[in-house]
Amino acid sequence: MAIEKITRNALKSLLYEVVTNPKPGLVDPVDVGPHPDMDVYLFIDSSLSLSDYFNQAAKIGSTFSGTDLKQMFEMLRQAGIEAEKTMFNATDHVNTHKGAVFFIRFICLC
Length: 110
Hints:
By secondary structure, this protein is an all-alpha fold. The protein has one domain. The protein has five helices and no strands. It has helices at residues 3-19, 40-49, 51-63, 69-90, 98-107. α1 runs antiparallel to α2 (40-49). It starts with a helix and ends with a helix. The mean pLDDT is 92.
């Protein structure tokens, strides 16, 4: 799968998730649930801030040629740490997608 398509699908997954309604207890366009520090626009900003990270994760997965997958995981971990900083900068330090940064990197490897 092309890196651009993987990146686009990762980004779309975050954007589609936040606009899905109803989602009791989670942020959606109608309700912030138990998250008064978040809204749908913050999630959109956060999602867009992670686009370069998804692209980087897909590139790591498609170009890694070593046999020690621990090395690839470490490359992804370092990229994820930087992505979290970017996300926190975009959201004024609100954790909107820290779990997604961890999980979606593995999907980007496909």
